[in-house]
Design goal:
298 residues, alpha+beta, D-amino Acid Aminotransferase, Chain A, domain 1, D-amino Acid Aminotransferase, Chain A, domain 2, 2 domains, 9-stranded mixed beta sheet, 9 helices, globular, binds pyridoxal-5'-phosphate
């Protein structure tokens, strides 16, 4: 099995320095309280950002998303964008990351006085954690492609748990992921509440039909940065791209399909349920992937 998150093992990850609330710690010493909102309730937000060829990829977009998500859950980050950027840069420097860095930033609402959900019992500033890793995608996933399967777990409506937020509580995605893995697939293809195809459990979904690129409206997906870049690339190269509602039958009738994410960029799909897709260098997926690589290598 492959996944959109398969990576090359890197021994340097044993010695990374992890940022927790203003200080850097060795892996074994990086700890937070059991009373933290994250451990107790999954109350917080996160983002992942890549550091490639001595620079962050789409830094502004990632910091913007972090602050947008914080606002949507009414979490006031006590540091401003500039300070958060400085901490990210410091984390890269202290860990001597030059390329293939993958940084997970986690912000929880902070420490609680007692195990209770109300933000009123929060007695500290938000907890900020940055886990930097040396993480290079495993190329085999690009050649082989992913197997997707539709699952029963759906993307919920905005007024249940807003699916556009990169929240710490990923239970919806995790349950979809478990379902997919039990069915022998690499990733779950998820419906929205109206039986349209929305997204995958950890990446976004696109399909291609007659050289036109389709993805969902985005209403039931995490606000995707890579997703948006692919849409922009299509527009820049005069490739027709549509953000619209579509059904499983449209997907099963497609010529190609692929997934996108910060970690692996574009990964082709080789199978959805019982439908197989051919993966080759003449595919539009491959061309889009090269355009995306050009963009991040710029
Ligand atoms: C459910 C889900 N979809 C998609 C993505 C990918 O989004 P992006 O393109 O910003 O990496 C993520 C990762 O954050 C995710 O958790």
């Amino acid at each position: 099995m492959v996944s959109s998150h398969d990576f090359i093992e890197d021994k340097r990850n044993l010695n990374i320095k992890i940022y927790v609330n203003g200080k850097f710690y060795k892996r074994k010493d990086a700890k937070i309280s059991v009373f933290d909102s994250s451990t107790m309730l999954g109350d917080g937000i996160w983002d992942s950002i890549r550091y490639h060829n001595n620079k962050f990829i789409f830094l502004k977009e990632h910091v913007d998303r972090l602050f947008k998500d914080a606002k949507l859950i009414d979490l006031k980050i006590h540091l401003n964008r500039k300070k958060i950027t400085e901490i990210l840069e410091k984390t890269v420097k202290i860990n001597n990351i030059k390329t293939d860095g993958h940084l997970r930033i986690i912000i929880s609402r902070g420490i609680k006085s007692t195990p209770y959900q109300s933000p009123k019992v929060t007695i500290s500033k938000p907890t900020i954690i940055i886990i930097p890793e040396f993480k290079k995608p495993d190329k085999r996933a690009y050649k082989k492609g992913l197997k997707l399967v539709t699952v029963n777990t759906i993307r919920g409506p905005e007024n249940v748990q807003n699916p556009q937020i990169n929240s710490l509580s990923k239970l919806n995605c995790i349950l979809a992921c478990i379902e997919a893995q039990k069915k022998g697939a690499d990733e779950a293809l998820m419906f929205d509440i109206n039986d349209n195809i929305a997204t995958n459990n950890s990446t976004h979904f696109f399909y291609i039909k007659n050289n036109c690129v389709f993805t969902s409206t985005g209403k039931y997906c995490v606000t995707g940065i890579t997703r948006q870049k692919i849409i922009d690339i299509c527009k820049a190269h005069k490739i027709k791209v549509f953000q619209k509602n579509f059904k499983l039958k449209d997907v099963l009738n497609a010529d190609e399909a692929f997934v996108t994410g910060t970690f692996a960029g574009i990964v082709p799909v080789n199978k959805i349920n019982n439908k197989k897709f051919k993966i080759n260098d003449n595919n539009l997926t491959y061309k889009l992937s090269n355009f995306y690589l050009d963009l991040i290598n710029k």
